[in-house]
Write a structure and sequence with these properties.
280 residues, alpha/beta, six-stranded mixed β-sheet, six-stranded parallel β-sheet, 10 helices, 12 strands, globular
């Protein structure tokens, strides 16, 4: 359906979402208005309510509101319920329906665009916030062998592990345990540490040249983690630009009932080497 859509978060001025959704709309022949709503956590509920009253039909939700968005929803998709975070809101007659397209976006980018097999991988997930919640169930569904969640606040890692409900494959550890965890087949950075650092202090024992290193951020925010990964000679290092495009495409499909072709806009953005600041 056509109408008003927006990304809500803080900060959002850097966001590529308006450009991405405009490209999808043009491709599919759908007229839409897509804006940005920059709001602090204490103003989130009021901003979403005001958007709905003004005729808003759908919202993308980014940092730091993904978990708060869940509480506003009248109904939730199964994947939003599993991960406990919402990044896509769809306005219905009974209120907001919440979904989460992050995990589908990440897995589609890795397995379809980059042709990577995620099965039987030992995976380290750094972080336990909204981004980590969004991708963890999809990684398990993709057939990884085990998921090790490490967060600076152990209680958040434990809460995510409990939500996933797969004790045979999901493990939590303290940040200080990192040097003792051995080598991983895949490391996913879902922290915001890269936004304020030129390098990440991670043990060299975590990776080899065969380790797949993925940052859920893109542009400048991904530099610190990916620089560390390259210093470990990881052959494949990826930022979150592909995930951003793919999760946006899934949100577009939920809103409009059409699945856009993501390759043209992804290629355009990648070729442009746009400097960005954080994953959505």
């Amino acid at each position: 359906m056509s109408g008003r859509y927006a990304l809500v978060g803080q900060p959002v001025a850097h966001s590529l979402s308006p450009r991405i959704h405009a490209a999808f709309g043009a491709q599919c022949g759908i007229a839409l208005e897509y804006g940005l709503i920059d709001v602090a956590p204490e103003g989130f509920d009021a901003a979403v309510t005001a958007f709905a009253r003004s005729g808003g039909a759908g919202l993308n939700v980014t940092l730091p509101h993904k978990e708060a968005a869940r509480a506003l929803c009248a109904t939730l998709s199964e994947r939003a319920r599993r991960c406990g975070a919402v990044n896509t809101l769809i306005r219905g007659s009974n209120g907001w329906h919440g979904d989460n397209t992050d995990g589908a976006g990440l897995v589609h980018d890795l397995t379809e665009r980059h042709r990577l097999d995620l099965r039987a991988r030992k995976v380290l997930l750094l972080g336990a916030g909204g981004a980590a919640h969004g991708v963890a169930p999809a990684l398990l569904d993709a057939g990884i062998e085990s998921l090790w969640i490490v967060n600076r606040s152990p209680d958040r890692a434990d809460a995510l592990s409990d939500r996933l409900g797969d004790p045979g494959r999901v493990h939590t550890r303290y940040w200080d345990d990192l040097p003792n965890l051995g080598v991983f087949d895949m490391i996913v950075n879902a922290t915001s540490a890269g936004r304020s650092a030129s390098a990440m202090a991670l043990p060299s024992s975590l990776a080899t040249e065969r380790t797949l290193a993925v940052d859920l951020s893109y542009g400048e925010a991904a530099i610190a983690f990916l620089s560390w990964a390259r210093s470990q000679d990881c052959e494949i290092t990826l930022d979150g630009l592909g995930m951003l495009v793919e999760q946006a495409a899934e949100a577009f499909r939920l809103w409009h009932g059409q699945a856009p072709d993501t390759d043209p806009i992804y290629s355009e953005l990648r070729a442009g080497a746009v400097a960005l600041h954080t994953a959505e």
